[in-house]
Amino acid sequence: ESGMFTYDPGFTSTASCESKITYIDGDEGTLLYRGYPIDQLANHGDFLETCYLLLYGELPTKAEKDDFVHRVTYHTMIHEQMSRFFAGFRRDAHPMAIMVGTVGALSAFYHDSTDITDPHQRMIASLRMIAKMPTIAAMAYKYHIGQPFVYPRNDLDYSTNFLRMCFSVPCEEYNVNPVLSRAMDRIFILHADHEQNASTSTVRLAGSSGANPFACIAAGIACLWGPAHGGANEAALNMLSEIGSVDRIPEYVARAKDKNDPFRLMGFGHRVYKNYDPRAKIMQTTCHEVLGELGIKDDPLLDIAMELEKIALNDEYFVEKKLYPNIDFYSGITLRALGFPTNMFTVLFALARTVGWIAQWKEMVEDPSQRIGRPRQLYTGAPQRDYTPIDQRR
Ligand code: SDX
What we know:
By secondary structure, this protein is an all-alpha fold.
């Protein structure tokens, strides 16, 4: 009770919602996209097939997939005037800052897909977001490192196209290693959706006001950036680098357990998973696959990560609080091996999560019972009182 309002214990948050897209059983460590287990999709499917599944609810037939891939492919270029948009950023701008600004600005260029009441415009906006995120992400990276932009190519698959836009230069031929491209594609699948996490809830809340999809995705990118959320992959790799050697792990485990120390094990723990994040297992396997393909025999950070996991999973603090590695624990090591700097890790998370944000936004705007989101609060401030003239204040 706050003296004015009596707290109604029956009060439930209006932020919760119903969805048919993704199911998580946190106790079991289960993750399903439209009913399909994440490991089956990651090991047997590809990212654009997963995009189709998340958007439309069913795995595509061959004809449906070919049509979807064709439509995405032909939306990968961005308005040429946008390439000058990047020049407004300082070279040392964090690529996530560039992503937030550039994605939000898409609504200034694509006026024919901002009316959310028009199903055709919603479909075009969805395709544009999925198609253009790799191009924008690669441009943010190229701008950051001072290299020329590389245009997408229509003869390459989604992930190969992305890796080429990031790592090729005009001066020489560049062929993407298919094993690495397959690994990138699988990493995108793992990050595609995760029910009502903070950034997806942000997109839904922004979309519930009728804001255009580009603005809603920009809001999701801003929320994902935080180190407690999508920024954890960058923070986890920085943490492993700071630990530096296996013999310093106990010192950091002790700090993570100390309530007076704000340090947390990055890439560990989860609001929903009270078991091993199923994505983390697949990410660890992918990490070994990528390092093996690149001939990296012993990555010191991987050794630290595996030893840290072993120690933590046998420590009563982590066992009692059910803290396990999450998707961000091994992703940084893998992304660094693929050639990305740490400040691009969350950009890659945002690139992959765009389909989840769009699918959840689409589900919400197409729900006729949908109303504007309006979470309430428990007021704990001052009771009502009268204004005091300034010369009477003490
Ligand atoms: C993502 O929501 C999603 O689905 C997100 C995501 C997605 O795909 O969208 O899965 C992506 O964001 C994964 C999480 C990435 N973040 C990190 O790895 C950052 C490190 N993790 C922690 O900050 C933390 O685990 C959170 C933020 C992820 C969850 O925080 P909660 O909700 O407080 O976790 P909890 O309630 O399970 O914590 C229980 C206890 C708490 O201590 P007590 O209050 O009980 O004393 O465990 C402690 C926490 O302080 N704890 C940790 C810890 N995580 C939780 N202690 C040390 N190290 C940690 N990493």
